[in-house]
């Protein structure tokens, strides 16, 4: 491979014609409020070469494969897109890897497809959307999947999708503009508060778009939990984990429904370490986030060893790719060593097979 090709892009989407055609039969022509872009492998390689990208770990972005509660459609389209990814890797083994698509929320089918994608197709990880039918990834219905991902020490790329109730907002703006960041934030704290990150520590998570708003509100989550513990009449009850027998609790629940349940889960799954302990274990990609504002916030949470290069091509335009690189290169808070780690070495640590390829 050309020595000039050095970057590894972990946030790089493909939109195969077969996928577009299948979605059209469901009446789906957009992802996150924007039209599905045209994609072909030759154009992708041109963009990669022009921006010194050695390898892209590709994925199917939102809207994914699950529509109208049609589990069979999701199962078939997951298999089809995973096999397309496998052929792409076979044709260009040095240039591409892939995250497998799973037919979630059908967990039995997802486990079956995970086995096929890893054992037969030899894909590099999985992509999960932030919510399925409005249920975020920390929900107990997904726990069997995370148990298997943990057993396999899998890399899981979390990509935002349309938040529940999006149409009710009447914003008139595509969810790709802002709401994707909020949905990433929701699912991240869902994973932490519900114990997925504590109970399944061998899953390596990559968060899209520098974690959405995660770095900015990380402290707020811990402070809010402490405030709940300090509410008059609730501290002793919560500390003992008793809850329902104390007269203070019904009053607390009446004013703030769900607060006791939330705090007890927080105490069990997040304490004594605190949210930051778990947030520092995530990787945060640079896609559409390569600005001083985002990087400064992100650096208060994690070291460069957990910031990873991503572009969001092909949903991001070709011009966004060099803009991402420029943002990394010009940010004064990064050293040259940081930039090398972010653009290449962190991905090689997550995907060891790339060490012999790039």
Automatic annotation (TrEMBL):
UniProt KW Oxidoreductase keyword: no
Keywords, ordered alphabetically: Hydrolase, Lyase
A GO term for molecular function: hydrolase activity
Any single GO CC term annotated in Swiss-Prot or TrEMBL for this entry: cytoplasm
Keyword Hydrolase listed: yes
Species for this entry: Ktedonosporobacter rubrisoli
This protein's name: Amidohydrolase
Amidohydrolase-related domain residues: 8-352
């Amino acid at each position: 491979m050309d020595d000039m090709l050095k970057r590894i892009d972990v946030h790089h989407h493909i939109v195969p014609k077969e996928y577009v055609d299948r979605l059209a039969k469901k009446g789906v022509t957009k992802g996150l409020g924007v039209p599905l872009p045209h994609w072909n492998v030759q154009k992708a390689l041109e963009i990669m070469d022009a921006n010194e990208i050695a390898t892209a770990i590709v994925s199917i972005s939102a809207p994914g494969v699950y529509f109208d509660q049609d589990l069979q459609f999701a199962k078939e389209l997951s298999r089809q897109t995973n096999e397309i990814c496998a052929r792409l890797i076979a044709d260009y083994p040095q240039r591409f890897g892939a995250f497998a698509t799973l037919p979630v929320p059908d967990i039995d089918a997802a486990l079956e497809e995970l086995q096929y994608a890893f054992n037969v197709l030899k894909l590099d990880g999985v992509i999960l959307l932030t919510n399925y039918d409005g249920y975020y990834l920390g929900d107990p219905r997904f726990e069997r999947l995370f148990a298997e991902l943990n057993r396999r020490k899998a890399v899981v790329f979390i990509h935002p999708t349309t938040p529940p109730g999006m149409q009710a907002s009447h914003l008139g703006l595509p969810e790709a503009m802002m709401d994707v960041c909020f949905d990433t934030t929701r699912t991240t704290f869902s994973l932490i508060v519900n114990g997925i990150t504590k109970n399944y520590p061998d899953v390596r998570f990559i968060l899209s778009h520098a974690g959405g708003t995660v770095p900015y509100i990380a402290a707020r989550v811990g402070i809010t939990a402490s405030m709940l513990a300090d509410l008059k009449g609730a501290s002793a009850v919560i500390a003992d984990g008793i809850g329902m027998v104390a007269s203070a609790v019904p009053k607390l629940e009446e004013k703030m429904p769900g607060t006791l349940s939330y705090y007890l889960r927080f105490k069990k799954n997040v304490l004594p370490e605190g949210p930051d302990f778990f947030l520092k274990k995530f990787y945060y990609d640079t896609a559409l986030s390569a600005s001083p504002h985002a990087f400064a916030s992100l650096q208060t949470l994690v070291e460069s060893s957990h910031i990873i290069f991503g572009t969001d091509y092909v949903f991001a335009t070709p011009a966004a790719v060099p803009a991402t690189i420029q943002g990394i290169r010009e940010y004064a808070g990064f050293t040259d060593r940081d930039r090398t780690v972010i653009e290449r070495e962190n991905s090689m640590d997550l995907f060891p097979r790339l060490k012999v390829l790039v």
